[in-house]
């Protein structure tokens, strides 16, 4: 039996990296996947990959920070499918620099996408889940919420906030049978990390090698590693997990 049979799933930022890998895995496990991304072309590519593998998906482009766009997206899903069983708040952007170097506009942008971008989709999906009396929300935090990493001040602040928000949401919505958990990945090789390495270091190869030495696993993670953890949180197999941080970090937090 497919692990997400008959589930309607919305994944934000699913046009690339972890979101794309998760969308493909969820569809393989029987879910109908609504692929959201800011960039329609990237979302369309994820839908193409899913359909090629025989799965079901549609792309709805929207900016997760924009209430009007998100409300419209949720309305479309509601009228087409009648429910949303899983919301994966995955969309996020990077922020690099020591605090004194960070441009205030750049600071606001990271806060906006990474925190407001969790708040807004949750705000519009929750009433539907409350009506259904059930659902699973997965928020994308990061292991950086728990360990210090150089030149990541703004980004780490957002991921700590997402972890705190997850716990607060869980308390409020537990009476509606809604579970809210957080993923805390370590460094996962995606376009996001490749950009960070090339922008932050003179020698990205050396930076990559030094990141690897922080891992007990000896290597960085891959999007599929996080997708498997998201699958567990999305499925009923994790029904006793509520407000939990789930680490997928190759041992970087505890190593
Ligand atoms: P990625 O850049 O490959 O993908 C992110 C996607 O989000 C992109 O397709 C982008 O277009 C989309 N997006 C950005 N802003 C958006 C917006 N306002 N509205 C809708 N979509 C938007 O990144 P990734 O590495 O797959 O990261 C996904 C998530 O995982 C992020 O929240 C990131 O912070 C988190 N994360 C990544 C790592 C890592 O090492 N890659 C580690 C921990 C946490």
Automatic annotation (TrEMBL):
<keyword id="KW-0560">Oxidoreductase</keyword>
<dbReference type="GO" id="GO:0016491">
    <property type="term" value="F:oxidoreductase activity"/>
</dbReference>
<dbReference type="InterPro" id="IPR020904">
    <property type="entry name" value="Sc_DH/Rdtase_CS"/>
</dbReference>
<comment type="similarity">
    <text>Belongs to the short-chain dehydrogenases/reductases (SDR) family.</text>
</comment>
<protein>
    <submittedName>
        <fullName>SDR family NAD(P)-dependent oxidoreductase</fullName>
        <ecNumber>1.1.1.-</ecNumber>
    </submittedName>
</protein>
<dbReference type="Pfam" id="PF13561">
    <property type="entry name" value="adh_short_C2"/>
</dbReference>
<dbReference type="InterPro" id="IPR051122">
    <property type="entry name" value="SDR_DHRS6-like"/>
</dbReference>
<dbReference type="InterPro" id="IPR002347">
    <property type="entry name" value="SDR_fam"/>
</dbReference>
<dbReference type="InterPro" id="IPR036291">
    <property type="entry name" value="NAD(P)-bd_dom_sf"/>
</dbReference>
């Amino acid at each position: 039996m497919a692990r997400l049979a008959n589930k309607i799933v919305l994944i934000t930022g699913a046009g690339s990296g972890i979101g794309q890998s998760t969308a493909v895995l969820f569809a393989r496990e029987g879910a109908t996947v609504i692929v959201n991304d800011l960039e329609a072309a990237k979302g369309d590519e994820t839908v193409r990959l899913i359909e090629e593998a025989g799965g079901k998906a549609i792309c709805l482009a929207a900016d997760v920070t924009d209430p009007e766009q998100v409300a419209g997206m949720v309305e479309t899903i509601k009228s087409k499918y009648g429910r949303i069983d899983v919301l994966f708040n995955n969309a996020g952007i990077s922020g690099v620099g020591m605090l004194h170097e960070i441009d205030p506009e750049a600071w606001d942008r990271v806060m906006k996408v990474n925190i407001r971008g969790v708040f807004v989709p949750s705000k519009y999906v929750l009433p539907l889940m409350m009506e259904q009396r059930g659902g699973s929300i997965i928020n994308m935090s990061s292991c950086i919420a728990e360990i210090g990493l150089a030149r990541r001040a703004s980004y780490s602040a957002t991921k700590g906030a997402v972890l705190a928000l997850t716990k607060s949401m869980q308390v409020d919505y537990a009476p509606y049978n809604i579970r809210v958990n957080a993923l805390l990945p370590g460094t996962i090789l995606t376009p996001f990390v490749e950009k960070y390495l090339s922008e932050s270091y003179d020698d990205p190869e050396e930076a990559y090698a030094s990141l690897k030495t922080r891992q007990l696993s000896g290597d960085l993670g891959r999007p599929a590693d996080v997708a498997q953890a998201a699958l567990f949180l999305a499925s009923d197999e994790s029904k006793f997990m509520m407000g939990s941080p789930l680490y997928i970090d190759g041992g970087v937090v505890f190593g």
